[in-house]
């Protein structure tokens, strides 16, 4: 437990819990304060309304402070994702607690902690969906994954196949992470290098020189037509219509030009070239 978490727990532990009677009394004061605030916004400015609004604010503050330990209890049930700490979840849960205080109906006789737990879990779950990962899952999938993780105490290796896949998608990992039985390798060692090696560079240069030598037998117009048709210059293959537009001829004329040029290259190459 970090020092900040311990200090927070010590502070909220000094606030006494509420009895069921006190919860009802505070809820009634808050309800009257809401009504008073609405009347004040409508233009009424009596001292009685102002006192009711101030009393409601004080009651709400006491109601929330007395239940902060409930938020910590709920937040501790969630596996902490990378980049988030317990106090981050607690902060989000406190927002849900405040919403529960605003919505609590004392007339129904429910215990406040039971009612508030729903809103606290909603707030924490929403925060995990939006902030815990770079990959956003649909709400139902995210809720299902959180429930599955709680059942296995946050151990992703014990998840079923579907939830394990979702867990991998939403859990970043370091390329420096050691792998293998003896931890002698790193994950980055398994990622293939996309850059060409020395052998590939040499072979590419040989191919380029070979193509240049083969095309050297063509005049400039025919050579341009072949290079444009097969993307030899920039890697982008063009249609006969596009080649013809560049040369100022029809697509059919461009096709005949390319065909004659390829035939000429084949004759000078001394071996078949499957270009068409």
UniProtKB/TrEMBL annotation:
RNA polymerase sigma-70 domain sequence ranges: 88-101
Any Gene Ontology biological process: DNA-templated transcription initiation
One of the Pfam families matching this protein, by short name: Sigma70_r1_2
UniProt keyword Transcription regulation, yes or no: yes
Keyword set, alphabetical order: DNA-binding, Sigma factor, Transcription, Transcription regulation
GO MF assignments: DNA binding; sigma factor activity
Gene3D superfamilies in alphabetical order: RNA Polymerase Primary Sigma Factor, Winged helix-like DNA-binding domain superfamily/Winged helix DNA-binding domain
Protein name per Swiss-Prot or TrEMBL: Unannotated protein
Organism for this UniProt entry: freshwater metagenome
């Amino acid at each position: 437990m970090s020092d900040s978490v311990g200090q927070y727990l010590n502070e909220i532990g000094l606030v006494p819990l509420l009895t069921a009677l006190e919860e009802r009394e505070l809820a009634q004061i808050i309800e009257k304060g809401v009504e008073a605030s609405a009347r004040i916004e409508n233009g009424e400015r009596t001292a009685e309304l102002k006192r009711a609004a101030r009393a409601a604010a004080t009651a709400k503050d006491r109601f929330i402070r007395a239940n902060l330990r409930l938020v910590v209890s709920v937040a501790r049930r969630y596996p902490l994702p990378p980049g988030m700490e317990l106090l981050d979840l607690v902060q989000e849960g406190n927002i849900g607690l405040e919403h529960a205080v605003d919505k609590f109906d004392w007339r129904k006789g429910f215990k406040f902690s039971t009612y508030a737990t729903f809103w606290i879990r909603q707030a924490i779950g929403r925060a995990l969906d939006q902030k815990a990962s770079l990959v956003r899952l649909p709400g139902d999938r995210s809720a299902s994954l959180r429930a599955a993780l709680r059942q296995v105490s946050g151990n992703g290796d014990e998840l079923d196949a579907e939830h394990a896949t979702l867990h991998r998608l939403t859990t970043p990992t370091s390329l420096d992470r050691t792998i293998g039985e003896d931890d002698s390798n790193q994950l980055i060692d398994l990622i293939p290098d996309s850059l060409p090696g020395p052998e590939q560079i040499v072979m590419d240069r040989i191919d380029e020189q070979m193509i240049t030598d083969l095309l050297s037998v063509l005049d400039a117009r025919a050579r341009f037509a072949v290079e444009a048709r097969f993307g030899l210059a920039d890697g982008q293959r063009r249609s006969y219509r596009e080649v013809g537009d560049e040369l100022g001829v029809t697509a059919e004329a461009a096709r005949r030009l390319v065909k004659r040029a390829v035939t000429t290259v084949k004759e000078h190459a001394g071996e078949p070239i499957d270009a068409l």
